[in-house]
Design a protein that fits this description.
Blueprint: H1 2-23, H2 25-44, H3 49-63, H4 66-77, H5 83-112, H6 114-135, H7 149-161, H8 164-178, H9 186-192, H10 198-222, H11 228-246, H12 252-278, H13 285-313, H14 316-337
Helix pairs in contact: 1-2, 1-3, 1-7, 1-13, 2-3, 2-4, 2-6, 4-5, 4-13, 5-6, 5-10, 5-12, 8-12, 8-13, 8-14, 10-12, 11-12, 11-14, 13-14
């Protein structure tokens, strides 16, 4: 079920990003929100697992255009000097949703059943759609580029001519693989420690969102005092430490605490990659952010397979320690490669 959502979510984003540049970001965002609402409604009344699986694919396609297009809109509306804080605010909204969604879905699922989760998805999606229709009425956005397929191809050519694109896209692929790719195993790891409640697994995942929300609150205070290089390496270091603690098989209370730290450390690295992604090709910003998000969620989609192989062949502790080492190495690589004189120190 997780992969049925994640793979189409990832694969459709380069197409949606290009369409957003061609036909208008706000317009395509509204279409994607409408698809999500329709998928949620159908999921509520699904009569079989194959039907639900198929609708999850539709869910993934619609969701694929929401967050990356939102990031691209931030790039259009906010100058680069203030973009880090603006993106942090957008992440704050996202993290609040993750906290409420992860914890709330576990509780709602335990008490009311899974159909109610999708019903709430539909209701909230309708509210988001109505808010977006109202909010974008007078937005001062760049006009769309209606040149067609030739424009799409030229946009991606400009994107990949920038050598930093390879760093950004590879790094977020690794992040998705090793951080969010482990999310489906949280409940299993907790069961290994004797904790079977779905609500507790949801609470632990909410800890990741809480950590991300803390990042949005403190980032504006960190930027004047630390270089982006220091913050990226710090994020990778704490991520590695978190995986080292998880390798010890802690109680759910400790699991929750370190997952909260993971949310903070993850965004200390990830948010800087996002800022660089907004500047890879300003004339094709929708495509750039869509490719950025696509790589991230391709990693998320493959992560459960990679972790499953590692847990089966290397064992849980060794797999988690290796994941931590790779994340630290990725952070150091990004810190040394993503350098722009006018942004250091921040």
């Amino acid at each position: 079920m997780a992969t049925a959502f994640a793979i189409p979510y990832a694969l459709v984003q380069p197409i949606l990003g290009a369409l957003a540049d061609m036909f208008g970001k706000a317009r395509l965002l509204l279409i994607c929100l409408s698809i999500v609402v329709i998928a949620a409604v159908i999921s509520t009344v699904a009569t079989s697992f194959p039907m639900l699986l198929a609708v999850r694919v539709l869910f993934g396609i619609g969701s694929g255009g929401i967050f990356p297009i939102g990031l691209a809109l931030v790039g259009d509306l906010v100058p680069v000097a203030g973009r880090q804080v603006a993106i942090a605010r957008l992440l704050g909204a996202s993290m609040t949703a993750i906290v409420l969604g992860a914890a709330g879905a576990g509780i709602v699922g335990d008490v009311f059943g899974w159909r109610m989760v999708f019903f709430l998805n539909a209701a909230l999606g309708m509210a988001a759609l109505a808010g977006a229709i109202y909010g974008f009425r007078n937005a001062n956005l760049p006009p769309p580029d209606m040149k067609g397929v030739a424009s799409l191809i030229s946009g991606y050519r400009a994107l990949f001519r920038n050598p930093l694109s390879k760093v950004c896209f590879t790094a977020v692929l690794i992040e998705g693989l090793l951080v969010q790719g482990m999310f489906p195993y949280v409940a299993i790891l907790l069961r290994d420690q004797g904790e079977y409640r779905a609500a507790i697994a949801g609470l632990v995942l909410a800890g990741w969102g809480i950590g991300g929300f803390v990042y949005t609150l403190i980032v504006s205070r960190l930027l004047p005092h630390f270089t982006e290089r220091v913050l990226m390496v710090t994020g990778g270091t704490f991520t590695a430490l978190v995986y080292g603690v998880l390798a010890l098989g802690p109680s759910w209370q400790v699991f929750f605490a370190v997952y909260t730290v993971l949310g903070l450390s993850f965004y200390l690295l990830h948010s800087f990659i996002q800022v660089y992604a907004t500047e890879l090709a300003p004339e094709a910003r929708g495509s750039a952010l869509a490719m950025h998000s696509s790589c991230f969620f391709l990693g998320q989609a493959c992560g459960p397979i990679v972790y499953g192989f590692g847990f089966s062949h290397l064992g849980t502790p060794a797999t988690l320690v290796l994941a931590g080492v790779i994340m630290l190495s990725t952070a150091v690589w990004c810190a040394n490669s993503l350098r722009r004189p006018e942004m250091s120190p921040l």
